[in-house]
Structures are given as C-alpha cells and as structure tokens.
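Posting this for the archive.
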Amino acid sequence: MIVEGNPAKVRKVNVIGLERSGFSQDSINTIKEAFKQLFRSETLNRSQILSALENQENLMPEIKVLIDFFRNTDKGKFGRYRESLRSTLTNTT
C-alpha cells in the first residue's frame, strides 16, 4: 500500500511494487478490489468486510495474509498475539 499524510492514511495499492515483485495482472486486480473493500467501504465495518473476503472462492494467499494481518492488529501491539509469536521463535532455535 502507499501511505501519505499526517496522520498517515492508506491512499492506494503500490502497483509498481507488485509488478516488480512478479505479481500477475490478475493478482494485482484482486488486491486492488480487496483494497477498495477494506479502505473505501462506507456501509460495512472492517470485521464484516474481512468475513466477506474470507468467504470468497479461490482466496489468494496474499489476501489471506492481509486478512490475518488485520485480524491480528485487533490484538494490539503488545498484546497476547505477540506472545504467540515469541513461542514459535523460541521453538525454532
């Protein structure tokens, strides 16, 4: 995403970055559509939008990562979610 302003606000999808990373045009269009739903909807709240995105057929892995990110932000920067990451990091060493 491209963010600007003070306070920062998400403005649009970083299409050039996605193209440079090798995303297909279909994938970019799907990400743009998810962006519109998440950041431009005036009728649904974020949890309703995330549920609708999850229920789509052929959900792209990138959209799943985006959904997981938004679900985990509700748990807080220093909340219980961070503790779950700590346990996975200590198990790998």
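The CA atoms of residues 77 and 83 lie 10 Å apart. Helices lie at 15-20, 25-40, 46-54, 61-73, 80-91.
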